[in-house]
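Weekend entry, working from home. Most of the wet-lab plans are on hold until the incubator is repaired, so I used the time to fold the two sequences that have been sitting in the queue since the last round of cloning. Logging both here for the record. First:
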Amino acid sequence: DGTDQWGGVENGLVRRGPNALNGEEFYTDTNGFVKDKVQALHLVDSALLVGTATNGIFRFDLTTRSFTKIPWDYGNLGNSINAIASHFDQLYVATNNGLIIMGLDGGDRTIINTEFGLAHNSIHVVYKDKKNSIWIGTKARYLYEIKENQLITHEFAAKGEADIYSISEDNAGRIWFATAENGAYSFDGENFRSYTSVSGLK
């Protein structure tokens, strides 16, 4: 949040910094949160959104120092939050059962999944670039982009699957993403470039 450091751990949330009591606080089921693995953190205005492994999303108000659970019931897979991104008044929530798009107030929800055109429902990462495109990484040979409310499919491998676990953007506007077993890739908007151990990646 600009002054404090936050970290998700196996059984809760850790806060370190000048705004934490005694310099460090641990939030779990004994002080308003839940005893669950924290897998995603995203700051929106004066609230920290906290994504858990089995209990969906919580909103931590930085002013009142209190947690509110966002209504969330998408089954075991959908309740596992892997990543959160935002753009204007919308949240993009990556789960193991698709990407959930909703308003900052929790309303107007849309689910992007295999029925919508994805190759796999398990979404590991969601990322917003400088041009406000939303990028989705899943268990497939495709990199997905949401641009002007349209889902665009970019195929970066001719066959097989490649779990995308991380997405970022460099100063030139190229999108970079890391896979579980197939190295890293860059995408300039037209062409993909692969980086593996053969090309010197270690």
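Second, folded right after the first finished:
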Amino acid sequence: FGFAQVDNEVKRVFADAVANLGRLGCELTALQPPTTNPVEMSIQITAAESFASEGYLLAQESELTSHSVSLLRLGEAMSASDYLYAQERRRTFTCEWGEFFEQVDLVISPGCPVAAARIEDAEADTDEEWWGMYAIANLTGQPATVLPCGLTNSGLPVGIQVMGRRYSDAAVLSVAATIERTLPRLVPPAPFGNREGEQIAHR
């Protein structure tokens, strides 16, 4: 989407999944969607609304994760004008994506710019790489779903995202079901999978 730096292994696995859609007869067109980075905008709106609804939890700050505390404190410090400005940017962003969907029925993209991390390496609460893609749908209200489409060479899962225009939920789910049905079943290597009789599929 322009703002996201996609890992090379994710690109490889995603390209294989997209090629599968082409073989099924889908008309595929490479287009450049709006490139505004939604992450900062999403954080601001989420922080303000989180503080409005859960700010009282700061009274038990020691029982919260550091990420939760940081988000609530950010919302606490935001002014009404900052929040309204973020919502105005959101309105513009939503219009841009609405105009883009006049050219296409669905947008197929990697579910995440990077492959899944091992538990000991993951910092999903604070790492923007993890959630930049679906922040778009969260802000615009467009239906989107993500499903596994392959594995990296080290056996970590890669996702593919299907996003549609507003109120096209049925089309999004139909295409996602087709992807799930036509791609090989993915079995990660031991200790996560590879039970007796199963085959490891790397795509």
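Plan for Monday: verify the second prediction. Helices lie at 8-23, 39-54, 66-77, 80-100, 132-140, 169-182.
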